Every structure is written in C-alpha cells, then in structure tokens.
Amino acid sequence: MAMSESSQENRTASHDGPRGRTDHHAAPGTISIQDVSLAYRGVAGSLQVQVLRDISLEVASGEFVCVVGASGCGKTSLLNCIAGLLKPSMGSIYVGGELVEGPARDRGVVFQQYALFPWLSAIRNVEFALEMRGMERKDRREAAIEYLRLVDMERSADVLPKALSGGMKQRVALARAYAAEPQVLLMDEPFGALDAQTRRRLQIDLLGTWERKPRTVFFITHDVEEAVLLGGRVIVMKASPGEVVSEVEVGLGTKRDSHTLDLPAFAEYKAVVARSLAAAEISTEAGR
Predict the structure, then answer these.
(1) Host domain of residue 119
(2) DSSP 27
(3) How many domains is the chain partitioned into structurally?
(4) Sorting pLDDT into bands at 50, 70 and 90, what band is 10?
(5) DSSP codes joined into one string, 176-206
(6) For residue 31, what are the contacts with CB-CB under 8 A and spacing of at least 6?
(7) What is the rounded distance in angstroms from the CA atom of residue 172 to the CA atom of residue 170?
(8) Could you report the per-residue pLDDT of 148-164, keeping only the tens digit for each?
C-alpha cells in the first residue's frame, strides 16, 4: 500500500501570491488559505499570544478534509477564520475564489454544541435556513422534510429539540446546514460530546450524506480514528503556535463503512497519523 505523507517544510504552495478580492478561476467550494497567522493581545496589553502561524492550505471542491491536533493547537480558530467569525492577523482566506471578510451563505457551520433554536421544532429549524435562502413559505415544509429525510429524521419533524437525543440534535443541525445550500461545510468536532456508539453511527451516516449530496467538508477533530475514517486527507497540526506539520492522503476510497475499521490499510493509515501527531506534540513540548 502506497502512503502519501508530506511535511509542512517540503510542501509547495499551489498559489502564486495574493489574489486580491476575487479569483474568477476558482471552482465553487474550494478553500485557499494563504499564509494565515492569528494572534491575540494578551493580559499585559502589548503581549501577543500567537495562535496560528503561517498556515497555507488548498482544499479542492468536494474534498473531505479532516484536521487533527491536540487541544490548543488552533484548529477551531482556523475553522472560525474560514467561517469569517475571526479575522486573521496576517494572510488571506478565499472560498470559491472570494475573499473571506465575514460570515456568508457559502459556508455552513456545525458546532459541537447543539446550536438549534430550542423553541422551534426540528422541521422549523430547517425551514429557518430555507427562509434565509429566500424560499417562499408554501415551499418550505416539503423541502425541509427532504433535508430531514437526508439524515433520517423526517419521523421527528415536529419534535422540539429538548425531546431529541444528542445524536438526533446533530442530525437536525446537519440537515439545517445542508438546507442553507453552502459550498463548504465547516464541522467543529460535531460528534465530540456523543457516546462512542452514537458517534460511530453518525460518522457513517455523515459519509453517506456527503456521498449523496457532495460538499467540501472541513472537519475538526482530536480523534485520529475519526480523522482517518472520514477524511480523504488528514491535516496534522501542532500547538504553541498552531502550525501545520504534515498532511496524510488517505487512500481508502469513498465507499467507507464500519467494516473499513477492520481493514489492515485503515490500521496503517491510523498509525501514520498517530506518529505524526505524537511528533507534533514532542515538537510543541520542546519549544516551551
């Protein structure tokens, strides 16, 4: 089995410098992260806390990329920069060729916390995304049912979030994110708070949903097994400050299910990512 692992030092950037505000040649759903750094002002006023340093990544349209790293490595901050919720201190991010300057409808975010409106039923949560798209009221319910069916939640359409399990809430959140018809889905450890059995089921369901309705997915996790199961490519980050240290191409194809976990190739890819992550943590400790 051929494995592809590249380090941050020997990777070549695929862009030729700043693009301005728009790249008309970029395909919808592409993500271009160019020399992005992020720093916060510390308690001492002038002291800068470096969160991200010199991040450059290219994500193709329709690609499923997982970012793995220890807590505090800046992976969520990177996702928030792509979402437009944080502004990089340096560098630029483009989605579909457009410079990211704030939140926009071309990016949908699924958080670890269940970010549903508690006073709205499952279907009304999904209808809210359709309303934001400008869909007429008479068409929303039927369309919302289709998005709930995509995640196997149509039978709970009229149930309030408080009566749903954690896994069911995340299914509704995914349906709502899809209903907004984004080019890119940004997922910040969406299954991290779930029990192991529910998490595995939702991982497999997510792959099925992505296969039926492809989107570019940028998925944050601290779980190596999850990253290898879901990602066509795994980005490994180190902390203090957050940097990309390696990328692993996962050659397991797109038809993955629970049996994929038993494949010898899966174990090998998992070992490659785990070694890279361990080396990143050693590097972080050495730099302190």
Answers:
(1) 113-181
(2) P
(3) 2
(4) very low
(5) HHHHT--SEEEEESTTTTS-HHHHHHHHHHH
(6) 57, 58, 59, 82, 93, 94, 95, 184, 216, 218
(7) 5
(8) 999 999 999 999 999 99
Q: Can you give the pLDDT at residue 12?
A: 39
Q: What are phi and psi of 206, to 5 degrees?
A: -60, -45
Q: Does 91 share its domain with 186?
A: yes
Which one has a higher pLDDT value, 287 or 183?
Answer: 183
- Cα distances from 142 to residues 87, 176, 177, 181, 203, in angstroms, run 38, 14, 17, 16, 26
Strand, helix or coil for residue 278: helix
Taking only Cα atoms into account, the Rg of the chain, rounded to an integer number of angstroms, comes to 19
How does DSSP assign 87-101, residue by residue? --SEEEEEETTEEP-
Q: What is the side-by-side order of every strand in the sheet holding 31-41?
A: 48-59, 31-41, 90-95, 98-99
Count other Cβ atoms within 10 Å, centred on residue 23: 16
**Hey, is 129 helix, strand or coil?**
helix
What's 215's domain CATH number? 3.40.50.300
User: Exposed, middle or buried, 56 (CB in 10 Å: 0-12/13-18/19+)?
Assistant: middle
Judge whether 59 and 30 are in contact, CB under 8 Å. Answer: yes
- The single residue listed with the structure tokens 């929303």 is 140
13: DSSP letter: -
Q: What is the pLDDT of residue 3?
A: 59
Tell me the C-alpha distance between 186 and 75, whole Å. 12
Could you report the per-residue pLDDT of 33-62, keeping only the tens digit for each?
Answer: 999 999 987 676 666 789 999 999 999 999
Q: Are 85 and 213 within one domain? A: yes
What share of the chain in percent tops pLDDT 90?
A: 72
